[in-house]
Amino acid sequence: MSVYRKTEAVTDHTAIDALPILMTVRQAAEVGGWSEKFLRDELVRGHVKGCKLGQSWRVHRDAFLAQLGLA
After folding, report:
1. 26-58 pLDDT, tens digit each
2. Among candidates 31, 39, 25, 24, which has minimal Cα distance to 70?
3. Which single residue of 29, 30, 33, 47 could bond 9 by disulfide (Cβ 3.0 to 4.6 Å)?
4. What residue spans define the domains of the chain?
5. Strand, coil or helix: what is 22?
6. Residues β-bridged to residue 52
């Protein structure tokens, strides 16, 4: 098992719809079933679309869900 994968992806659409439009790394990692470190690495590499606000990354909910095939 990869050191980065730690949880199952969130598939409950009610829970997903309650997420903010700009998710924190923690929120997005939980949705994707990834560790926060893995998601940050993917953001830095450009494999996941996101933006940096100060020192914190934000992930656009709808774009992330589309990328995961959940939208």
Report:
1. 999 998 999 999 999 999 999 999 999 999 999
2. 31
3. 33
4. 13-68
5. strand
6. 57
Amino acid identity, position 68: L
CA-to-CA dists, residue 68 to 32, 53, 54, 55, angstroms: 7, 23, 26, 25
In the chain, where does DSSP find H-type helix? 13-17, 25-32, 36-45, 61-68
Q: Yes or no: say if 3 and 17 are a contact pair by the CB < 8 Å rule.
A: no
Question: In which residue are the tokens 């909910």 written?
Answer: 61
pTM score, two decimals?
0.77
Backbone angles phi, psi at 31, to 5 degrees: -60, -45
Residue type, 54: G
39's tokens = 């998601």
